[in-house]
Design goal:
The protein is α/β, with parallel strands linked by helices and 152 residues long. The protein contains six helices and five strands; from the N terminus they run βαβαβαβαβαα. 49% of the residues lie in helices and 16% in strands.
Length: 152
């Protein structure tokens, strides 16, 4: 498994915790930044990760910002990306199992590093269950196509 990771200045420390967890777990990753707590614009970093996952260079992505909201909104603008903001392990597991989420977002100002590690572990271990969930994910994709393929 190969993971793309990024976070803005508001999620920098949480991103560093995620990177440490990935390293400890022996999971291949690439850190797309930011590399300090100097202010940056979260859409720029979220777009890098979302596009890398969409292209297939990475299996999944993890994004951190202050709340997890801005990076989720941004990543979900990229067709084929299903970014889920998760601040508990149940949601993280369900995001993978039921929604086939390929990007996880979290907020540094919302959760601490211990819980974030548990969320990442639950999300990475979970797999899409398919079955009845295929129909629902297909409907999400159909909505995406309806609004992203207008030719304009």
């Amino acid at each position: 498994m190969k993971i793309a990771v990024a976070g803005d200045h508001g999620g920098f420390r949480l991103k560093q915790e995620v990177v440490a967890l990935l390293e400890k777990s022996g999971i291949e990753y690439q850190d797309f930044g930011t590399f300090s707590e100097d202010p940056v614009d979260y859409p720029d970093l979220a777009l890098l990760v979302a596009e890398a996952v969409k292209k297939g260079d990475f299996d999944r992505g993890i994004l951190c910002c202050g709340t997890g909201i801005g990076v989720a909104i941004t990543a979900n603008k990229v067709p084929g990306i299903r970014a889920a903001q998760c601040h508990d392990t149940f949601s993280a597991r369900a995001a993978r199992e039921h929604n086939n989420a390929n990007v996880l977002t979290m907020g540094q100002r919302v959760i601490g590093p211990g819980l974030a590690g548990d969320i990442v572990a639950a999300w990475l271990q979970a797999e899409f269950q398919g079955g009845r969930h295929n129909r629902r994910v297909a409907k999400i994709c159909a909505i995406e196509k309806k609004y992203n393929c207008s030719g304009r």
